[in-house]
Amino acid sequence: MTLHDLGKSFDRALFLSFNRKKLLFVFLTLVLCGILIVFGRAIAFDTSKWVAMSLVFLPILLSSGILLSLGVLLIRVYRSEVKNIRVDYKKIIKSSSELILGTAYLSMPPILVYLFLWIVLGIFMLLKEIPHIGSFISIVLSFAPFLLILGSLLLVLFNLVVLFFVSPLIALKRTKRFKLWFFLLQGFKEGIFANLVSFFVALFPISFVVGVLSLAAVLTGGDFLETTHSLSIGLKWFFIMIPFCVVLAPCIVFFFNFAAECYNFKQRKER
Questions:
Q1: Looking at the domain assignment, is residue 20 inside a domain?
Q2: Would 102 be classed as within a structural domain?
Q3: Buried b vs exposed e over 141-152: b needs ≥16 C-beta within 10 Å?
């Protein structure tokens, strides 16, 4: 993909990211994901660090499964928009319902892997509490918790990669489940640099917006979010989450639009 092709795909994906119906649908989906994250954050307020960590990562991994189903729907809508075909949302949702439900299995392996990492981390935390030798063990094996937490972060990154590269495969190619990873690896190997550039271009608007909003939330938290009750924390973050979802909605639409553009470019190149 040349710079001209990248710019053309970027412009078209961006131009078609501001449809009101799509933005409303994405906003409601983001609110659902936000409720999961806020609920986990509220519960984690009065729990141990070990439990709190699970309540940070699990909602994110569950939200990735929801966003994958959303991405399949958005890409099928985008295909109709690019072809200047009248978009019938009810028809697309009805025809995609089985396909969308079938994507749920893709979110399970990362969750199971994370639960395994979380349990192993809990074992190291128990070893740390052993009288007399616990502190020595925690020093000698300090690299293990680091690697386990790093693995959890890499799982989140892996889910983002899946959202970008797998959503078009499911929505447009209707690949069989056992062939899905084969096509994904094959397509990624054929142009690693181009795929990485496309992925980071798609991710940039989300990263930038999340960074700015998170900074605003942190600065706000010092004066307005101080509380000692988990319920208050949950309610305050719920209302802060709403502008997050509003501003993020077009970025999410662009992410999946651009994913479809990159997939279609590869298909045309193969022909």
A1: yes
A2: yes
A3: eeebeeebeeeb
Is residue 151 a part of any domain in this protein?
Answer: yes
Backbone torsions φ then ψ of 229, nearest 5 degrees: -120, 135
Question: 67, 254 in Cβ contact below 8 A?
Answer: no
Summarize pLDDT for 197-247 with one digit per residue, the tens.
Answer: 888 999 999 999 989 988 887 777 655 555 566 677 777 778 888 888 999
Q: How many domains does the chain have?
A: 1
Q: What angle do CA 173, 68, 43 make, to 5 degrees?
A: 165
Cβ(30)–Cβ(125) below 8 Å: no
**Using H for helix, E for strand and C for coil, what is the string for 103-128?**
HHHHHHHHHHHHHHHHHHHHHHHHHH
Is residue 118 within 8 A of residue 54, CB to CB? The reply is yes
Q: Does residue 135 form part of some domain?
A: yes
Joined tokens for residue 183:
């096509």
Confidence bin at 250 (pLDDT 50/70/90): very high
Residue 224 CB partners (closer than 8 Å, separation 6+): 236
Query: Is 227 in contact with 1 (CB distance < 8 Å)?
Result: no
- What's at 92, amino acid-wise? I
Reported pTM: 0.86
Question: Could you tell me which of 74, 77, 58, 110 has the C-alpha nearest to residue 251?
Answer: 74
Q: How far is CA 115 from CA 65, 129, 146, in A?
A: 16, 21, 16
Domain containing 21 equals 3-266
